[in-house]
Here is the input.
Amino acid sequence: MNTLNDRSSSKFKRIIPFLVYALCFAVPNYGQYQVSALGPEIMNLFSLDFVKFNSMFTAPMLPAIFTSLIGGLLVDRFGYKPVIAVSIVLTVIGCWLRLVANSYAMLFISMVLLGVSAGFTTSNSSKALSVIYGPEKV
Here is the structure.
């Protein structure tokens, strides 16, 4: 009977990191791609022209590319947990800034933060999942 409880407890302990990691993927990406659907409203609210709107829409892309390179190095040095923790904090700050943004600059900065967090998470997904589940199961 103890073996059955140990197995279900072990499965539960492995589901939680997967769900946390899935949220780390979903939230920054949702924050980024939500902008295209709300484009006309955002442009009217902040009085943006097409150039500013396009720069704000693509703002997460460049930081994601650069932080994906840096994120891999950081995980090799410090492990995946601290790097993903920083990613979660940056995601929360970026989403919060986006909610309270009252200017183009604040909106742009929030989108850059979402790109940074997405880059950290995406670049380290295979390493983190192989540590959690074992390389033979990934």
The helical segments are 2-37, 39-46, 50-58, 61-78, 80-100, 104-123, 125-133. The radius of gyration is 18 Å.
